[in-house]
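Checklist before submission:
- one chain only
- standard amino acids only
- sequence pasted in full

Submission:
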Amino acid sequence: MKKGLIGKKLGMTQIFDENGKVVPVTVVEAGPCAVAQIKTSETDGYEAVQLGYGDVTPKHVTKPLQGHFKKNDVGLKKYLKEFRLDSIGETKIGDIIKADVFTAGEFVDVTGISKGKGFQGTIKRHNQHRIKETHGAGPVHRHAGSMGANSSPSRIFKGKKLPGHMGAEQVTVQNLTVVKIDADNNLIAIKGAIPGPKGGIVTVIDSKKKV
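Returned file contents:
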């Protein structure tokens, strides 16, 4: 990884490319992010940058975190995220990183928390099939079916796909194309959909896929 940003998903829209073709994009408010801490190979065994995003009042920050920000002379931030980089370069504590670290045409990986869908059955949660609705098959059209039925095994094996809570988990979508950068407003237009609801916090990093 060479660069990364914390941002907020604003929603989806569409823009037109130079050939007049419509491109569906997700708009992300990426940054500005403040460098709150730098980790080096000498002190920590690896190189990484801790970024802070979103201003917040002191009453919403714990005393230990307030001390962390004060020690490094960085304003209070709501979200912190560490990005493990190949090389720190000339990055310094207090630097402000904005959306213009990315350029149009680059490939990025976006990570976020997917939308929560509550308690769901096996058909929606695991894409299983239902049984026929005629000839006395009911009332179990959408049930998971028989499990652990006989004296052997007399139990349900671990890992069986069953109903349960769906969504609200970390999801990463890889190799998305950056379509447009609005550096003045810290906006990145990324082709396609990314995880999470509007207003959800996401991280954007450069992809291993080359342009």
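Reviewer check: The two ends are 15 Å apart (CA to CA).
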